[in-house]
Design brief:
single chain; 145 residues; mainly alpha; 1 helix; 93% helix; rod-shaped
Length: 145
């Protein structure tokens, strides 16, 4: 018969099985489990550290977002003021240029009117001379005939 199946050897086999199992449990408990526990503790502490960093970064982002919103609002106000002042200056410049052009046009119109008046006087004097000359010629012809 096979010695493993002989009932006489059961006790010794169970005894050594129990001893081996105890030895394995003891070895696991002393070497493997502490290593796993330390790894788990390191991971937990690293995760907690990362979470705290994430929270601080989130807070920084919120603060930066608020600052950015304030900066954007100030920039909008300043740009609006700049645009309004530019529009006002442009309007004033346009009004001044319109007035200058109107004055220039009025001066040109006055000058043109005076030139036209002079030309009219010259033409009237020429016409009078022509009429007088024509009248004299007609009178001479009438007197001769």
């Amino acid at each position: 018969m096979i010695p493993q199946l002989d009932s006489h050897y059961y006790f010794s086999q169970l005894f050594w099985l129990f001893i081996c199992l105890l030895l394995l449990v003891f070895l696991f408990k002393k070497s493997f489990v502490p290593n796993v526990n330390s790894i788990i503790e390191k991971r937990t502490s690293h995760i907690e550290k990362c979470n705290s960093e994430i929270e601080s970064l989130d807070n920084n982002i919120k603060e930066l977002s608020k600052d950015l919103a304030l900066i954007q609002e100030n920039a909008r106000k300043k740009s609006s003021e700049i645009i309004d002042s530019a529009i006002k200056k442009a309007s004033e410049t346009i009004v001044k240029q319109e007035q200058a052009l109107k004055n220039e046009n009025d001066a040109l119109i006055a000058e043109t009117r005076s030139q036209l008046d002079e030309e009219m006087e010259n033409l009237q004097s020429i016409i009078k001379e022509q009429v007088n000359t024509t009248a004299q010629i007609v009178l001479e012809k009438l007197l001769r005939s």
